[in-house]
């Protein structure tokens, strides 16, 4: 475990009383100060994993250390380091913003600290609303209150469970800004999401969970670089039966019953090399007497990468 590990998850499994195994043998290290996005389809085990880390659900096997504290044997020390933002506001509709957020701090046995509550409310643009009852707030403001509640006891780690589920595009962007601001203030962020775009936009690292197993953990940039390939498809005038040996140096595959050639290349980092590669390819095609009538390029998005990963592990 390295020094910058803030959460250490080891051989974690969870079988519910029903006999359903929701997590199997999950190992994960969360680094201090990162935004980590946990992606996965419905029922993959995202909420279960968060709940076990936060100590709300018991693991069947394995252990979790939060800043070095075992989340079962040393529950309080582990839990006080964590803020959890659930999807929905459950109660307190008639309380004011100020009371709701202050009360949350008290739940962790922390002494009152109006200055801190003020800082949190200001950072989330809730200060002007502090005397408003929750029931009078817009959906966006309610989401901010959920975050303020989770930050009231000064946690260093913040879990956001589907922070933008069911919200409109504008509010989603607004939430992304808020989350980035928190990360910039030094909070480690772990979020679950269905929205690939959300992970692509915000995460430093991405974990993909499927059927209770963590199938991949990778730097987002690295993931995009390794898997985010560009494809150039050349639609040929005349079909060919095989790629001529003179074109062996290029990454070419035959498609569409010999009517198309597909060239794959790394589209993100070596822009100049790519262009050189394409120029060479076109010259070699010409020399080989292969003519094409049309071409198009496409870039794989994180969405496609994700879909292919999920498919591969089925
Ligand atoms: N208390 C429980 N008892 C039995 N099975 C449960 C319980 N809670 C969750 N499950 C099952 O465990 C699996 C994982 O659920 P979980 O809520 O962790 O998934 P998720 O990835 O968060 O899904 P979603 O994106 O739909 O919220 C699901 O099949 C769910 O039905």
Automatic annotation (TrEMBL):
Any one GO MF annotation of this record: ATP hydrolysis activity
Q: Which SUPFAM superfamilies match?
A: P-loop containing nucleoside triphosphate hydrolases
* Coiled-coil residue windows: none
Q: Which segments constitute the ABC transporter domain?
A: 7-236
What's in the keyword line of the UniProt record? ATP-binding, Nucleotide-binding, Transport
Check the record and name the InterPro entries matching this protein.
AAA+_ATPase, ABC_transporter-like_ATP-bd, ABC_transporter-like_CS, ABC_transporter_ATP-binding, P-loop_NTPase
Q: What is this protein called?
A: ABC transporter ATP-binding protein
What is the source species? Halomonas nitroreducens
């Amino acid at each position: 475990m390295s020094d910058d590990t803030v959460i250490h998850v080891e051989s974690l499994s969870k079988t519910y009383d029903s006999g359903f195994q929701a997590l199997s043998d999950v190992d994960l290290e969360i680094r201090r100060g990162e935004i980590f996005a946990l992606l996965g389809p419905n029922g993959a085990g995202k909420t279960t994993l968060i709940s076990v880390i936060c100590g709300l659900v018991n693991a069947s096997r394995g252990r979790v250390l939060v800043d070095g504290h075992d989340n079962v044997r040393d529950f309080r020390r582990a839990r006080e380091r964590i803020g959890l933002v659930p999807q929905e506001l459950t109660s307190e509709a008639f309380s004011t913003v100020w009371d709701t957020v202050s009360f949350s701090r008290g739940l962790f046995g922390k002494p009152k600290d109006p200055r801190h509550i003020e800082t949190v409310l200001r950072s989330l643009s809730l200060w002007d609303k502090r005397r408003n009852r929750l029931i009078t707030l817009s959906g966006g403001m309610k989401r901010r209150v959920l975050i303020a509640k989770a930050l009231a006891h000064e946690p260093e780690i913040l879990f956001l469970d589907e922070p933008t589920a069911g919200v409109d595009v504008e509010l989603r962007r607004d939430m992304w800004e808020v989350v980035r601001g928190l990360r910039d203030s030094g909070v480690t962020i772990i979020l679950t999401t269905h929205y690939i775009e959300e992970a692509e936009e915000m995460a430093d690292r991405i974990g993909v969970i499927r059927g209770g197993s963590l199938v991949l953990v990778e730097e987002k940039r690295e993931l995009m670089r390794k898997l985010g390939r560009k494809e150039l498809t050349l639609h040929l005038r005349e079909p060919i039966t095989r790629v001529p040996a003179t074109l062996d140096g290029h990454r070419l595959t035959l498609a569409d019953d010999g009517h198309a050639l597909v060239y794959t290349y790394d589209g993100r980092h070596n822009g100049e090399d790519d262009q050189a590669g394409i120029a060479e390819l076109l010259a070699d095609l010409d020399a080989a007497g292969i003519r094409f009538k049309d071409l198009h390029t496409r870039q794989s998005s994180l969405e496609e990468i994700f879909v292919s990963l999920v498919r591969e592990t089925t």
